[in-house]
Amino acid sequence: MRTFTPPSGPGRVVFGRGTLTRTRAEVERLGRRRVLILAGRSTAEAAAALEESLGPLVVARFDGAVMHTPTEVTEKALAVALEHAADCVVAVGGGSTTGLAKALASRVDVDQVILPTTYAGSEVTAVLGETTAGIKRTRSGPEVLPEVVIYDVDLTLGLPLPLTVASAANALAHAVEALYSPQATPATDAMALQAIGDLATAITTIGADPHDPGVREKLLEAAWLAGTCLGAVGMGLHHQLCHILGGAFALDHAATHAVILPHAMAYNASAVPEVMARIARAIGVTDAPSGVHDLLRAAGAPASLRELGLAQADLAGVAATAAGASYPNPRRLDAPDLAALLDDAWHGRRPAGTAAELSLLTTQVLASFDATPSPRARRLLRDLVCHLHRFAIGNDLTEAEWRYGIDFLTRAGQVTDDNRQEFILLSDTLGLSSVVDVLGGARTPDSTPSAVLGPFYCDDPPHASHGTDLAKGMAGTPVWADLRVVGPGDRPIPGARVDVWQSDDQGLYDLQHPDLPEPQLRARFFTGSDGRLAFWTILPSEYPIPDDGPVGQMLAAVGRHPFRAPHIHFLIDAPGHHRLVTQLFVAGGEHLDSDTVFGVKEPLVAPFEQGEGPAPGGRQITGEWRRLTYTFRLARGPHPPENLASLDQPTAPST
Ligand code: BEZ
Ligand code: FE
To answer: Which of 426, 509, 522, 545 for mutating ligand 1's site (highest number of atoms within 8 Å of CB)?
Structure first.
């Protein structure tokens, strides 16, 4: 059992795109009115934007932040702060600028608002690392912790790729060391593992499009998580080595993290094998240290201390300093072993591990897509391979299991023909179709939710007029469907084309009766001038999806039933509006909460109320009948394609 007291983080965190413009409001919220802007050389442009946005609150600007927070630079900035009686520092930049803000806050009474432009993470910690006469020392205290952190993804879009990868390695290091820290808590464990997985994915994909805001967002989010870990727990050998190397030899901070991390992990691996296994699982490799090495190298991170400019003769001194310092580390610190670690890092050797070949293989396959002309296709293929390899590696997949999977897909192909699509059934029962459906629905939030098309749609069903009985007298509880199609602002849409189809009371669609002379329980309507359509049908019942193939075997093998909740399908097209493909589910029907294709959405569950009084259209009914009343809302959008075949063309979702 472990005992823990999680520390608190910064007062406020603001995360998003374009959030730089919220800085003024945050400074005002703190009650501060004399701002000193801090920036580094590379963030002068963002500092200028801040200056403009903060307007009269700015009293001075200091653009001289440099790496490792040397005290002589802090003294210069302090003089500026005192001269202008600053009561708040607003720092935009990486760890160096944040470090300078913290150094000032530890000397005078200023609040700190930090806008990070890298993934260093120090903005959410109460730790200050300062360098005096070549020695970097850390100290912490509540005055060091920034009051507000504003993460603006836009500030990171232009971060050069090499710096991006190295800085992401820095974040990765925080998360890795948090997992074996003595102060780890369930919260830091969860944050660290999430950060490690997200960072690994982003480091692998960022090279394809370094400006991709989606990947940048993930990186910044993971950096925040990793930084929060850094602030919450003590760090071990890796951070200690980076501090020594940075302080004494002014090596590039982020690049040093990228070089040292795999070797520090390899050093500690034997002491914390279970932590290494969790890290390996999170990044989809079998061996964490060599996996991290390969991940960073494939993304172009520097491999050796030699290329960072360290002389080999300096290694022994670093090993001795690291062995003599007192900090928590899972494995005992032993100078000769540390010297060996540093020798490996200096040469850029790959940590020996069982997964070397696997990591290399994944890297090679990913590189094989580099020349793909379509960026979207390249991204999808790379990501698919990453996930497939991680699936196999993470589960230690056996040859027999792989063969079973291939055989399963082969059988799915063999039962697929013009009337039977086993692959779509597989996608449906794995929830993938509904995932894609939900993603599509999110692009048209103003419309009635969509639902999967299913395999029983037919182009060009028979036209029917209002009041028609689709059941043509067949068995089942009669239902009077009284429906409306409207657009934005509840404006009725006249002339909308509405295709309706459903199963019979045995749970079968007409397509499943090959000998039927004409379509059954299927029709096409056009809405009237009031946007309405009305027809008679029968109450749909639950039914099993076709389960005599491999998908049915899969459902049986895992103890799942094959039933869909009772529903009626609709496909609605109207010029100037997005197509709506959806279903209405019978409230109170079977399997609403266990629909085998995960297709039920709450707004689509409609009451099929008991009919009262005379049946519409003068119909004589002796038993019970039901009434379905529903309004479909279409979102404005491009004219829908003429037929579903044109949906076969893959299109990138608009972002
Ligand atoms: C359907 O609702 O028609 C359906 C949807 C997915 C799989 C099988 C059937
Ligand atoms: Fe259906």
So the answer is: 545
Q: Is the pLDDT of residue 648 over 50?
A: no
Token output for 47: 């500092």
Ligand 1 atom showing the smallest separation from residue 564 Cα = 2
3-state helix, strand, coil in the chain (%, to 5): 45, 15, 40
* Structural domain includes residue 570: yes
Separation between Cα atoms, residue 258 and residue 118, nearest integer Å: 14
The total of structural domains in the chain comes to 2
Helices 273-283 and 186-205 pack at an angle, to 10 degrees, of 40
Query: 404-431, pLDDT tens digit by residue?
Result: 999 999 999 999 988 789 999 999 999 9
Together in a domain, 374 and 453: no
Run of H or E including 534: strand 532-538
DSSP label of 645: G
Residue 195 belongs to some domain of the structure: no
Task: Report the alpha-carbon distance of residue 235 to residue 261 in Å, rounded.
Answer: 12
CA distance readout (Å), 60 to 34, 84, 127, 350, 405? 8, 7, 25, 48, 65
- Which residues contact ligand 1 via a Cβ below 6 A? 425, 428, 452, 454-456, 545, 564, 597
Instruction: State in Å: Cα 639 to ligand 2 middle.
Output: 26
What is the Cα–Cα distance from 500 to 279, expressed in whole angstroms?
51
Q: Is residue 468 part of a domain?
A: yes
Residue nearest atom 1 of ligand 1, based on CA coordinates: 454
Q: Are residues 516 and 567 in the same domain?
A: yes
- Mean pLDDT across the stretch 263-273? 85
Give 31: exposed, middle or buried? Use CB within 10 Å, 0-12, 13-18, 19+: exposed
383 with 453, same domain?
no
In this structure, is residue 537 part of a structural domain? yes
Nearest residue CA, atom 7 of ligand 1? 454
Pick the atom of ligand 1 nearest to 503's CA: 3
Look up the domain containing 390 and give its range: 368-411
Could you tell me the CATH number of the domain that includes residue 536? 2.60.130.10
Q: From the alpha carbon of 424, which atom of ligand 1 is closest?
A: 7
Is the pLDDT confidence value at 652 over 70?
no
Write down the pTM of the prediction.
0.55
